[in-house]
Every structure is written in structure tokens, then in C-alpha cells.
Amino acid sequence: MRFRPAARPTATPLAALVLMAAGLLAGCGSGISLDEPIEGPVWRLEQLGGETVAPGSDPQRDPQLQFDRRNGRVSGSGGCNRVTGSFERSGSSLKMSQLASTRMACADPARGASEAQFFAALQATTSYRLQGASRMSLLDSGGRTLAVLSTR
Fold it and tell me: What is the pTM assigned to this prediction?
């Protein structure tokens, strides 16, 4: 009986491993590019609960958010009141917590109801999806869109 040495390793396992890794990275399907952070720009509310939100006469008072990477804080406006809190982002996961807002009455009851719905959407957000660098959807734990914001 002759002894046969084991077959020499080839590049095939390495090539397969590289292809698998590339497939996993390309197949994530989240629409998230970590090269496009959400921190920095002012995100203005465009859609809330499936309804389009028209911009007001004063853009500074429109519902909006801004994420600050340096201190992990989120701040903005619901249209009548200011909101602030903390946020954590990892991949497509986004959690806003310790949200607090001022308690000024809205002159327009419809605007006040919209603001309350917006603040509730922020609390319920568990992830997000970017559509390009200027449009972001906030999603709940079931993947449903709660709000759409843009940097318009």
C-alpha cells in the first residue's frame, strides 16, 4: 500500500469565502450606506402617518430634527414646541430616548395634534432607511414607516 499525501490546498476555498462575504455585504438590502450619516443636516418632516406635511410660512417652526454625533443628542421642533433627547445609531438601528419637549400650546389645534403624532413616532422609532443622502424614513419595530424626513 502506498502512502498518498493529502491534496494541496487551492485558492478555491479562499475565493468562495471572499464571494460569500461580498454577497453578504451586498445582500443586506437595508438601503443604508454608512458613508451617508444622518448626523449634521436638519431633517424636515415631509410625511407623517402616510399623510403629507405641508411646509409652513416659517421654516424655522416646521417640524424638524437634527442629530449631533459629538454628544449623541437629537433636537428639533414639532411645529409648536422644541424637542430634545438622546439617540443611538448602529447600522440601520436608530433609537431615540429621554425625549423632552417644551409645553407651549399650539394656536392651531390641527398643528398640535400633528406635533403629538410626530413626537409619538420619534418614541416608537427603532430603525431608519435612507433613500439617497437627502431622504430618510423612520420605521417602527415591524418595519412600518412612521415618518419621512428630508434635508430639502
Answer: 0.75
